[in-house]
Amino acid sequence: MTPPPTFLGMPPFPEAARSAVSNPQLRHNLRKATHTIRDKRAHVVGELSDWAELRAAGAAIKDRTLRRLDEYLVAAEAAVTAAGGTVHWAADAAEANRIVADLVRATGETEVVKVKSMVTQEIGLNEALAAEGIRAYETDLAELIVQLGDDLPSHILVPAIHRNRAEIREIFVREMAEWGVPAPPGLTDEPAALAEAARRHLRERFLSAKVAVSGANFLVAETGTLVVVESEGNGRMCLTLPETLISVVGIEKVVPTWADLEVFLQLLPRSSTGERMNPYTSTWTGVTPGDGPRDFHLVLLDNGRTDVLADTTGRQALRCIRCSACLNVCPVYERTGGHAYGSVYPGPIGAILVPQLRGVASGKVDPQTASLPYASSLCGACYEVCPVAIDIPEVLVHLREQVVEGGGHRAERAAMRAAEWVLDDAKRLRTVQRVAARSRRLLPRRAPGPGAAWSDSRALPEVPARSFRDWWVRERSAPPPQPPAASPQPPAASAQPPAEQNRIEEDDR
Prior knowledge:
Blueprint lengths: L12 H8 L3 H23 L4 H17 L1 H14 L3 E5 L2 H15 L3 E4 L3 H5 L2 H7 L3 E4 L2 H8 L16 H15 L11 H18 L2 E4 L3 E3 L4 E6 L3 H7 L3 E7 L3 E2 L2 H15 L7 E5 L10 E7 L3 H5 L15 H5 L1 H6 L10 H11 L9 H5 L9 H5 L6 H14 L4 H14 L2 H13 L13 H4 L12 H10 L20 H11 L1
Parallel strand pairs: 1-10, 2-3, 2-4, 4-7, 5-8, 7-10
Antiparallel strand pairs: 5-6, 6-9
Helix pairs in contact: 3-12, 9-10, 16-19
């Protein structure tokens, strides 16, 4: 199986991050955009008193679907076929690209329009089509900016989040004419002007394209219906105007019923764009004579997903609905941006999804992929905002273990094995503790070797003069403290001397 590609020439995350954090303009763009989106999300999520219940329902639906994924995929295939569509199965990126290229060539066309799709980026579809003489035109505004700028996406929701509006204007003025309708004279960097320039540029493509390629946010198994949610309307133009529609969909996108879809149509817009509902929610089921495309093809893609499904800890990554909420709260992503992750899936979700898709457990991945599980501070903010409750920190630690066991990070593996050897025997542990206590004044204040990067930003813990074990033994062996000797009790204040008592008794008689 051919694994999904990383961006060509990208170094391991620590090297890429080091370069990114030194770019003040990038950090400014990221901070402004992510804080704006996260604030909007927090506002609309706070409006729902049952958000926690919705979140739990979304996780439960995804888990139930993944446990019976084979059954739901077969049901979806049958429903799509009954509705007049054609289903294709692709084991990996190469097979999916070949299927799509063959379908486009069969129409006689050399151009396609595309709806924003993470999965087609995952398999490198645009590049594969270009190799076959087929040009793909991105129609999502942010994807258009990336394509015109010969750039790479850096965010799941907003691929051009690393660009500011002045940079976007320069890209439009410089590149639009090469791809079609040029930018209007005197174009400014006002958002409305940039959006209008994009509309004029794309309108020609929408009206002339005969073939469109899309992904899907969801695939409803009971009816074979595909769902795309978006904010601009470009997706609906692509899904309705062309004669042939080809949708490439990851097998984990299945939901069993329309009732299940209802939950996700509440979770997704609030978590992604900070809206109560998406401006455009497009659904299509097979083909309908006289309405929309005449031919519909669904390409169901595995590309490592069944391997992820086999990992009982890591499979929760397949719950992901691509909302990008985890990116917007991640302190690491905010400072490095998406390009440092070297994949179309950046941020916390990319740090757990990409290594699994590429097979990190096999120990045969490249250094760039093996570095991704370490691209986190494990603060847990990603888990708190995830609308389907993916415990990303748990999976990160799980994947770090796999990287080490697979032969990566030799220093860490050696340290863990040494710790195992010491902790496995009480006598060895006692000896090491006593040696450390007696030599504590000689221990360095900065960790040696690879540990130096860790200790440069943290204070090493003090080694106590006596271990807890020794303290406990000494306390238990010491004789128990004796209670203080009892002092003589003075007579009660009401007691009378004997002579006086006798006198009182006599008087009473």
